[in-house]
Structures are given as C-alpha cells and as structure tokens.
Amino acid sequence: MQPHHSATEPALIRAATGKQGDGPIPVWFMRQAGRSLPEYRKVREGTTMLQSCRDPELVTEITLQPVRRHGVDAAIFFSDIMVPLAAAGIDLDIVPGTGPVIAEPVRDAAAIRALPELEPDSLGFITDSVSMLVEQLGPVPLIGFAGAPFTLASYLVEGRPSRDYAHTKALMVSEPELWDELCAKLARISTTFLSAQAAAGARAVQLFDSWVGSLSAADYEEFVAAHSSTVLHRLAERFPTVPRIHFGVGTGELLAPMAAAGADVIGVDWRVPLAEAVRRTGGGHAVQGNLDPALLGAPWPVIADRVREVIRSGAVAPGHIFNLGHGVPPQTDPTVLTRIVELVHAEGAELRAEARAAAQKESVR
Amino acid sequence: MQPHHSATEPALIRAATGKQGDGPIPVWFMRQAGRSLPEYRKVREGTTMLQSCRDPELVTEITLQPVRRHGVDAAIFFSDIMVPLAAAGIDLDIVPGTGPVIAEPVRDAAAIRALPELEPDSLGFITDSVSMLVEQLGPVPLIGFAGAPFTLASYLVEGRPSRDYAHTKALMVSEPELWDELCAKLARISTTFLSAQAAAGARAVQLFDSWVGSLSAADYEEFVAAHSSTVLHRLAERFPTVPRIHFGVGTGELLAPMAAAGADVIGVDWRVPLAEAVRRTGGGHAVQGNLDPALLGAPWPVIADRVREVIRSGAVAPGHIFNLGHGVPPQTDPTVLTRIVELVHAEGAELRAEARAAAQKESVR
To answer: What confidence score (pLDDT) does residue B365 get?
Structure first.
C-alpha cells in the first residue's frame, strides 16, 4: 500500500480521487498548450505537428507554457491523438487545416491484421519528454493523454476527419468480430502509450474519446464500452494511484456507461450541467468541466457568472476539476483563461463549500 | 370547424396529429430531394443552389423525384435554409463545398436594424412552386420547410458555417436585448416563409433548428425558445390544420423545451431512442425519426433490423413518422432508401401494433 501524502497531494489528485471536500478546485484547460498562445505559435514555427510531438525539449517547453502563463493546477502532456499510431509505424500525416490523414485507410480484415503493435521500445521520446517535464513541473501534476479505441478507429477507418463516421459505423455494425479485433489492438496501443507516460511520472491520465458522441448509448455499450474499459482497467491495475479521466464531446447520452467503463473522473461537455452529469453517473464519480468554450469571447462579467454557475453545479460531485466543456479554441484571448484561473482560485473553494452546504440542507429536509 | 376527412387524410397527417393508432407508419427522409439521387444531380447541372430554389419548375421536379422513386409518404419542399433571407434581400451566396456565406456578417445593432423584412410579395416563386407541386402530388402531402431563428441567426452572425458558433453565442449572452431583436426579425421571416407555403397548399411544416444542439437547455430556454415558439404559434393560429414538425440535430438535452415551444411532432436524431424522446417530452407529442444515417452503408439485414428497432421504440408515441435521424448523406445508395420505404410499409403497422399491445400490457401489470 502506498503511503497517504495528503498534505503534499495536489488539488487535482484530491479532486480526482474524491478527497476534495471543501478544499480548492483545481483548474486546467483542454488544449491549453496550443494555438491560443503566441509563445506556442512561435516555438512551433517551421516544425510539423508530428515532429513537435517527437522532440522532448519542444514537448516540454510547449507543455510548460500554459502552466507558466495561467498558473493552472495541471499540465496536459503535449501530444496528438495520432502520435501512438505513428510511433507504431502506421503511415499517416497531420495535414494543417485538415487534420490526420492515413495513407491507407483500414477497412478490411487484411488491413486490420496488418496493423502493427506499439512496442514500448519505440516510446523513448515519450519517456524522455515526461521525465524532463516532471522534473521541471515540480509540484504541478502532469496529466498523460491518449485517444480511446473508438476515436483511433474512426481515424484509421475513415482515413481522414469525418462528419458522420459512416465507414467506421458500417464496419462496426456489419462485422462486429473484426471491429472487436481492431479495437482490441487499439486498446493495447492506448494502454501502452498511457502506461509509458504514467511510468515516467504522469500523475493522472486522460483518455479522450473525442468522437464517441456520434453513437447512441446502445451502440456504445455494444461495440465500444468493453474496449475503453480494457484501457482504463489495465491502467488501474498497473498504476493504482494514477486517476483516470475520461472525456468525449457531445456525450450526454453516454455519461453513465463511460463512467462505468472505469473512469475516476468523467469529463462533461457544456451541454449537460455538472449536477445532471452527477445524477446520470450515479454520484460516485468526480466531474471535470464544463464552461462552454464558445463563450470565451463574451464580456468578462458574463464569463465570470458562468464560471460561478459551473462551480455551484459541480458541488454535488465528490470532486470537481474545473475545465472547459471542450478544447480551447485557437482564436481565444489567453488573458481570459488567466482570469478564469484567478477567479476559480479566489472564489472556487468558498462557492463550492456554500453550494455543498445548501445541497446537504436540501437533502436533510 | 373543418370537416373530419379521416378516410382521405394522409398517414403523415394522422401520425402528426396523434390519430395514427395501429394505422400505417408514414415514411419520408430529410434531404430526400438532393444529391443522393442521380436524377437530381442531372437536373441541377449548370444551376446554382439559389437559382434552383427560385425556379418553380425545377423545384417541382426536384421535390417530386424522391416521391416517384421511393414511394415516400410525403414530399419535402425543395428549398434551402437561406432562401427566405435571400428573398428578403440579404446579400448572400451558397458556395459549393463551403455552404452559405453572408457578404456582411451581422454582428452589431446597426447591422441588425438594417436587416430587411421579408415581404410576402417577394415570395411569388414560392407560391407558384407549391401550387404546381400540390397539383402534381395529388394525395401525397407536401411538407413546408424553414429554418428556425437560432439557426438563421447563426448563419447571419458567423457569416459562414461554423463549428462552435462563438460569435453567435457571444452576441446572445452579452447583448440579450439586441439578440432578441435579431431573433424577433428572423421569427417574422420564418413565419412569413412557412405561411406562404401553407397558404399555397403545404399540408404540414417542418421548422429546422439545425444547429441549436450546440446550446445547453438553460441557454435554449433563456435565449431561443420564445422565438421558435413565436413561429410555431403564429403558424398554428393561421393554419390550425397544418401540423408543425420541429427538428434539430444533437438536441437530446433540448427535446422537452423544443416540443413545448409549440410542435406537434418532435424530430429526434439517432442518439436518443424514440421511446426515451417520448419520455422526455411527456408523452403528448408525435415523434419523427430516427435511423442513424451513417448506417445506410451497412449490409441490408443490419439496416432492416435497425428499422424494426426504431419502429418498436416509437410505438409508445401517439404518432410515429419514420425518418432518418438527420439528412440523407450525399453518398447514399438510393436503392437502400427505397427498400426502407418498402419495409416500413410492409411491416410497420403490424410491428407498431404489437409493440403498442406489449407496452399496454406492461403498464397494466
């Protein structure tokens, strides 16, 4: 058993593991390391996305930038959802303005069986990046990052970003055994990729199932849940002190099965109030979210009110990690993000405590 | 009071008005008149979208094509969401591969106040198209079509298709009075456009709020519901025998307030089972939907099973109009749509009757 270091345990970890109580609300932003920051655009000049993700010094610098600038309570490992697939040897490119493009879309048994495994040996650049980061981050926890099997499958099968995932869904429903074979491979890749980060010092991990919100709950449970569950449970076995955050956009219908797949923290987009997400997931999970990122261009008093609303709504959860309901849009004025961090730090714990007390009173009545 | 013509009343109208019982399930497909049909691509050659929508003979031909080919139970008026805005005199274009582009995005008080009204006199081409269509359709009902205020606003404010509607939402939350002024204007335009179609013989109307699923329920209720309600209630007053269908994609969180805005039929995308949509809307509304259009490329037995599942799930509604959960994708093999129509016609009423009987038994127990 691990010793209990509550005094030094970061707010993020306390919130993720249900030990937040009336303590501080940690805050970070999905895609905080990225195009909203001029210092990011500067260091990325002249390098492709995949090159950047493979360069430990650049990964470290980019991951640290929003921590320095905003004072967020966690760093999110700078990577791309395609990095583990590229590291496994799949021929792909990230085309600016388009997104990931796979040289040979993977649509039949032969292509699925020919997919390489991800060998831990090929992840030296990940281990190096994480080790360097952990040293420089000091007490600020690093969150590891990987795409979930459905989302990885959607890129491989479609061959490029898609609006409706028609090829992916057709494979899924018409050849369920082949689909399971594909997703089992991708679950191994996700697990290996997250494990490398956790082993090198990531204190939490986030499994992104970006596009799974395109499925109904019935299809999610039949074709996807087991594979995400494999990733989350293997991580839990190997790294029992590393909490697992699980998120996808537009997943209001899927919150319960996604939480049940083995997440400690369920990420929620802006469409579902956090209190409702707590209700849907049964009350046992911490929540992460969920300010609407499209509102970051609104005047500050409007944003501040929304931030407070999110905090009050999340107070019924055993833990609340403040975040947006999706990634930071590239055109965001980064000073707004800094102000949000300041506001959550200044008022968060008190707002949460008040809302918790009010909820308790309500439930006693 | 209007005489009751139940013998000649089309299945679509019976389903929409809660008189379906164990009778036939009407079927049509959103975007059935469009790029999935080779005969459509042929007649559209050399004409722009806006030209096509303004040409009564072409509108009639395109609207009739899927009725002839598939034997659907309703025609959907071939138009574009931007047509009433263009008819009002707003400078815009529909750019192939991009979508609607507004010459001057509408983002401040001056621009909103300068927006023209839609004069019924400028809708002669609509009256002509609908009249011609109604004559040629005979007993098959025509469904009129318009965009709802939020979706029209999103195009005007963003100036082009958007992923996150950031400008629209910023205006909405930061200048709510100005937003209301804009939406009140757009509600008048939608009402005028739908009224012209109903007056010329459309037997039902569908108010499309394509992008409203980007909002939380709280924002929908605060900023949008009243404006959609204005359109739906004015239509109901002027054309009490013309049922109103209301649909948006990704609106699982909004079904109750959208239905309450004054719809007879609530359109449901594929993420929410119809039975759950009935529960969320209180049981008083007919439902339309909701086969996942991304599955139209799956093998026929899979599609057939899904069609039967949708019918069984919709049986608890007082009326069910079979449809997809969103528009027909352009790459769809149209023979699949014809087979779906045949299947719904062959098995629909019996499947629905069985499921209704089972549900009744369940509720008695």
So the answer is: 67
- Residues 6 or more apart whose CB falls under 8 angstroms from that of B78 comprise B33, B52, B53, B59, B62, B63
pLDDT > 80? residue B174: yes
Q: For residue A191, what are the CA distances in angstroms to A134, A236, B3, B23, B77?
A: 20, 10, 67, 52, 51
Q: What is the pTM of this model?
A: 0.95
B296: which chain A residues are within 8 Å (Cβ-Cβ)? Answer: 166
Asked whether the bond before A323 is cis by omega within 30 degrees of 0, the reply is no
How far is residue B315 CA from its own chain's centroid? 21
**Minimal Cβ distance to A166: which of B170, B270, B297:** B297
How does DSSP classify residue A223?
A: I
Mutation target vs B (from A164, A220, A270, A276; most B CBs, 10 A cutoff): A164
Give which of A31, A210, A292 to mutate to test B binding, by max B Cβ within 10 Å: A292
The burial class, CB within 10 Å (0-12 / 13-18 / 19+), for A279 is middle
DSSP A305-344: HHHHHHHHHHTTSS-EEEEESSPPPTT--HHHHHHHHHHH
Provide mean pLDDT across the span A273-297: 97
- Per-residue pLDDT averaged across B340-361, rounded? 95
* CATH class of the A11-19+26-285 domain in this structure: alpha beta
What would the pLDDT profile of A65-74 be if each residue is shown by its tens digit?
A: 999 999 999 9
Work out the minimum CA distance from B160 to partner chain A, whole angstroms: 16
Could you report the predicted ipTM of this complex, rounded to two decimals?
0.94
Q: Which of B40, B73, B155, B234 is catalytic?
A: B155
